[in-house]
Amino acid sequence: MRQPLLEGDVTGRYRAATDSDSGYRITMALAVGCSQPGRVWTPGDFFQALLYTPARGEVWARHLRERKVTDYVEAKLTAMLGKARRLVADAELITCRQDALEAIEAVPRG
Questions:
Q1: According to the model, what pLDDT value does residue 20 have?
Q2: Which of 26, 39, 43, 29 is nearest to 82 (CA)?
Q3: Which side of the chain, N or C, has fewer Cβ within a 10 Å radius?
Q4: What digits encode the pLDDT tens for the residues 39-55?
């Protein structure tokens, strides 16, 4: 989780048809990572990392904040974090990269 947050998607792992979809995918991956047992972040921690700390992995969230009000973006990120938490709670423990990628793909977009 550290590498995608700090450096962005340097390997193209979260690449999608559009920049917006790619940004959503990497953000959802980070939300899943922040929802793992023993690593559960508060929404405030998630906002701090994605919106207020310079990191290449969260250009999407900061770009969204430039176009929308902060309350909207924080609500969107809270919803993503909630979706990730429900996914993690209903799924088996993710123990490897492949499990994580499959879990990310299973999250409905919206």
A1: 86
A2: 43
A3: C
A4: 889 999 998 888 888 77
Q: What letter does residue 68 receive in the DSSP assignment?
A: S
CB distance 27 to 61 below 8 Å: yes
Residue with tokens 């992995």: 57
Please state, in angstroms and rounded to a whole number, the distance separating the CA atoms of residues 5 and 26.
8
- pTM here is 0.76
pLDDT of residue 108: 76
Count of Cβ atoms closer than 10 Å to residue 36 Cβ: 16
Which positions of the chain have pLDDT values less than 50?
none
Q: How far is CA 65 from the centre of its chain?
A: 15
Tell me the C-alpha distance between 71 and 56, whole Å: 22
Widest distance between CA atoms in the chain? 37
